[in-house]
Amino acid sequence: GRGPLCFGRDLWPLISKEVQCVYYEALLAARDEAPAAVARFAAAFLAAAPGRAEEEVLAAAGIGEGSRWDWEALARPYGSRVFADAAQFTSWLRSHLERDVAQARRGNVRGPLKAALDVLRDLRNEIRLAVDHGGLSGHSHRTELEGWYTPLNAYLSIGPPAGRVEEMLALMEAGVLEVSLPGIRVTAAEGREGEGAGFVGTSALVPGVRVRAGALIEARLPEMDLRRTDDPLLRCLLASGQCRPYRIQDHETGGLAVTRSFHLLDAGGTAHRRRFAYGVPTESVHWVTAAGIRPGVGSVTLEDSDAIAGAVLALPAPARTAAGGPGSGGDGARHPGRPGHEEVRP
């Protein structure tokens, strides 16, 4: 009853506590602590307030400073380090990847680090329940969820399997693959004597080093933004007022606005009876829509698609016009206010 949640205040402390607890449980189990002792530790740790109380529980369990969870070290493994040259960065990166593979080979059940990071995946559905459909304030959604936690979650819980990382290391060792600079900034470069036009990469973490290439491939998954899309269908719907960007208080997102039953909302907020949208186009209404389907888990993607299919099958057959085309049942692309644009209860 107190209004939208604040991610940093209301959700992050719970997420962090759960992740850390799983890490310490696996750490103690790896030390051959009795299951009952591990369970007592978990109960005490979960009940302890962050700060001194947690530290006392950890100390009592014999978990020293060097073995404790460190979000900052995980999020920024190179810390405040500045590299002398690209070779020094490459050497550091190879060592870092080798350590990460070693952690992965311990598994995500007995290996403390990977078991803990798996919690970030396990909690996705629960986080969605809290943040979807304006669960957060506009400011918290923009700065804390989209601007901080979503990229942190992706970095720590999404990535290639250990075998692929080992293949990458082998290619680096053989000189086939050269890794670019960390935190790279790329700018277009004009041609000069002996070189054609291309691109130049620089990094504040490797001062004075410039990497030049003749071609640049944008391989990242683009952020969903209805206002900048080149998809002809979405552009047409937006231009004609048949859809709108999703808004959370004063924060307009790039996601496609839909009701809780996935009906498309027009510029005036009216839901279309026969138009549905889910998945990546609705990012911001829903959280991490690009995440893959996990085995053995009630996948939001599959459950949502099943609900939409059921709703479509339950619709009455559209009326036919005298000319044999769609009638007023809501088929076809119509402008707001015309037949077929019916109000649907969200």
Molecular structure report:
The chain is mostly helical and 346 residues long. The protein has three domains: 7-168, no CATH class; 182-220, no CATH class; 222-346, no CATH class. The protein has helices spanning 7-30, 35-47, 52-60, 71-75, 86-105, 112-122, 124-131, 138-157, 162-173, 232-239, 300-314, and strands at residues 185-189, 198-202, 211-213, 245-248, 251-256, 263-265, 271-276. The strands form three sheets. It has a three-stranded antiparallel β-sheet, with no helix packed on it. Strands 4-5 form a two-stranded antiparallel ribbon.
Structural key phrases:
3 domains, 7 strands, 11 helices, 42% helix, disordered C terminus, 346 residues, mainly alpha, two-stranded antiparallel ribbon, three-stranded antiparallel β-sheet
> What is the string of SSEs from the N terminus onward?
HHHHHHHHHEEEHEEEEH
From the alpha-carbon coordinates, what is the Rg to the nearest angstrom?
A: 25 Å
Q: Give me the secondary-structure category.
A: mainly alpha
Q: What gap, in angstroms, lies between the N and C termini?
A: 20 Å
Number of domains: 3
Q: In one word, what is the shape? A: globular
Order of neighbouring strands in the sheet with most strands? 1-2-3
Q: State the helical fraction.
A: 40-55%
Distinct helical segment count: 11
Give start-end ranges of low-pLDDT stretches. Answer: 324-346
Main β-sheet description: 3 strands, antiparallel
Estimate what percentage of residues fall within beta strands.
Answer: 5-15%
Mean pLDDT: 90
Number of E-type strands: 7
